[in-house]
What we know:
The protein is mainly alpha-helical. About 80% of the residues lie in helices and about 0% in strands. It contains six helices and no strands. The protein is elongated and about 50 Å long.
Amino acid sequence: MATRSIEPSFGLLFGDLLRDLDVGTTGAAIIMSTLDVCMNFSGLFVGPLLKEFSYRKVAIAGSLLCGIGLAATSPAASMAHILSTYSVINGIGVGLSTSAAFVALNHYFKYKRGQAVGLSMAGTALG
Length: 127
C-alpha cells in the first residue's frame, strides 16, 4: 500500500525541490516516465527472483529499495540525482514489491481472489 502510493504523491513530496532546482514540467514528466519504465521493467526480474526466493523476501527487498531510493533523493541537488535515486532505485523497488504482493494474494486467496485484489487496489488509493 505504501510503495505504490508514492507515484501520485511525487508533487507533494518533491514539488518545492523541483522548483528550487528549476526543473519544469518537462523535467517532472521525464522523472515520472522513467519511474514508470523502471517499475514495469522490474517485472522481468520478478519471476526468476520469486523462483529463487519467497515472495516475502522479494517484497521486503523491494520495500528496502523504496526506502533507500527516497532517502537518497532527499539531498538531491540536480535532476540527474533525482532520476537515478527516485526514478530508478525507487521504481525498481516499487515494481518488485507490487509484483510480489500480487503473487502473495494469489497464494492466500483461492476463491475470492477478485475481491482480494480489488481491496488491495482500494487500499493503495486510500494510502
